[in-house]
Each structure stands twice: as C-alpha cells, then as structure tokens.
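Regression check, 1,3-dihydroxyacetonephosphate case 249:
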Amino acid sequence: MRNKLAAGNWKMNGTSASLAEIDTLITSHPTPKCGVLICPPATLVGAMAARTKGSAIATGGQDCHADTSGAHTGDISADMLVDAGASHVIVGHSERRQDHHESDADINAKAKTATAAGLIAVICCGESDDQRVAGKTLDIIGAQLAGSIPETATAENTVVAYEPIWAIGTGKVPTLEQIGEVHDFIRGALIKRFGTEIGDNISVLYGGSVKPSNADDIFAVNNVDGALVGGASLKAVDFTGIITALENS
Ligand code: 13P
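Current build output:
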C-alpha cells in the first residue's frame, strides 16, 4: 500500500499570523487517515514544526541546497531544515526550475543531499503548455524523472509530484484522462528503473489547481496517491476539504 499524502506548498506566502491556520487543521483532522504535510516559507519552518509537534501534521521546506554547508548566501541546507524540525523538502518545483534556472542535475543533487540528511524529497516534474500542445508531455516527464531522481531513491525517502505548469495557479485542470495518462507513465518509469519493490511504492502526487471541489475526482484516478496543493493549502477551510477527499479515496 502506497502512502497517501496531502501536501501544502505555501510558496512565498505567510507570516507568523498564518500559523493560526495550522491550529484549525489540527483541530479538524486530529488523526487523519492520510499523511498531511505543510511546506511554509523558510522563515516559518521552525515555528510550524514547533506548533505541529505531537500532531499528525508534518513540516517541510520548499527547497534546499545541494551542498551540506558553505558560502551560499541566502540558501538553506538540508541539515538546517532537519534542525528546524522538517521531515520533507520539495525539490525541483517548476517555479524554481524557471526562476532559478535549476536543471535536472541540480535537482538530482539536492534530492540526494536531502535524503542523505534524513529528509523525504518531494521531487517535482511537469510540462509547459507549449510542450503539451506539441505532444511532448511524456518525453519531457520521462527526461525530468530520469535526470532529477537520484539512484538512491527509495519508497521511504522519495515522493514524486506531477505538476503541469499550465495548471499551476490558473484554475485550469487537465482532464482526468490526461492526469491518468501521465501518472500511469510515471508509475511505469519508476518500476522500470527501480524495480517493483521500490517503483510501485513511491507515492505520486498530482498538483495544479487542486481544490476541494475537484479533489474527489482527481484522487479516484489510478496511480494518484495524493496532491501537492498551492493556493488551496493557504486556508485551513479549503485544505481540510482536500484532506477529507483523500481520506475517503
Ligand atoms: P496551485 O494549487 O495554486 O495551482 O499550485 C500548485 C503548486 O504549484 C503546488 O506546488
């Protein structure tokens, strides 16, 4: 049985006042029947981990550096995230691939460092609108997976998130057939590379305009093991609806 995970990515949103949302989440889902993860901005990782201590909600970072320490002004190491109380880190989000020109090789190195530090790496992939229109989606996803996931990946230390770039923050959602096609492809690629024992047990999340209103349908798609949620993770009232949908899937 693969682990189901409802993961929230707050991106560059939230100050200490936003932590009140977490109290609501804990109250509404004291014992969720799926994993629940919130990745706040780096400034809130320590406070969120402290606030969620003893609850079922895990805390994650949104990025880490590939090096374990050193002269990298403004960056955060995997060990620092662990020290702050994080259990997960997102790597290779399309916004970092775009804004910071991160390559598959960069992401591979980050994932390797993160997992060596004891974090679970949530490795993202996803095609642009142009790439989908050109019929290149599966080629792009295949190349991103091959390049970004390190050899050291296991079902315990790695989660994959499929996030079509054109669906992020746009309200546009792929059809259930399109989601299913890519998730089946990812599952096949993971099994081919890592064998059934690992490849069939790595959780694969869908991300891109997931909301309480579409979560039931998305979670019913084969090989969708949860969601990586941006906008709808900022408010507990929305995110609880997504958690409930995943629990019932
Ligand atoms: P939205 O849910 O806001 O579309 O964002 C998805 C995402 O990028 C999560 O990492």
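Comparison notes: The beta strands are 5-9, 35-39, 57-61, 88-91, 120-125, 158-162, 203-207, 226-229. The pocket of 1,3-dihydroxyacetonephosphate is lined by residues 9, 93, 163, 168-169, 207-210, 228-232 (CB under 6 Å). No diff flagged against the previous build.
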